[in-house]
Protein: Uridine phosphorylase
Organism: Lancefieldella rimae
Amino acid sequence: MSATPTPHNAAVEGQIAKTVLMPGDPLRAKLLAEKYLENVEQFNIVRNMFGYTGTYQGHPISVMGSGMGMPSIGIYSYELFNFYDVDNIIRIGSAGGLADGVKLRDIVVGMGACTDSNYAAQFNLPGTYAPIADYDLLRRAVSGAEKLGYPVRVGNVLSSDTFYGADETALSRWASMGVLAVEMESAALYLNAVHAKKHALCLLTISDLPLAGESLSAEERQTSFTQMMEVALSLALPESQ
């Protein structure tokens, strides 16, 4: 649709793989590229939103930070889908567990993304749209986790515009409707994907339980996030592997 690079991404055509993993933190993107990928080339440093392309078990894959919140991932995912012809974006991030039975370290797969955001208003729809994951990516992620021996929870997540919310009862009310976890990006990613006729999935590691006042240490987060990253990386491989 548009010439590249963009104002936010220094990559040129062909530098970004068809599948992109997107952590919120650009330093986590750097860590993932250094730890898991071979033949790595950095394609973006604009605004320190690092992006890398390499190979995983011989297959091309890219990883790039998304920043925090729906406006940020909205920009980066839109450009990847529409300007760089990316087919699949898998968000890999942390979340606060809400529903009964969700525990620290759990991997949550966001089948749907409830939201308190007005992001969908731009599409001028005659009702309320329900942003959902790509089913094939979801199915493969659950299968990949099972093969790796990592249990996952699948269901609704909440994509919120606020980290520090004034309404202290809001999260408990979302939990009462079975929402598994709260994060800040997935709804925008899912909306951008379907509008571009592309594919998206959200994988989350439960790093804290805001209603119970519990959280992981930095070391515990690293171990748990490694499991989530391995599930995400499996989506870059042909299904036979």
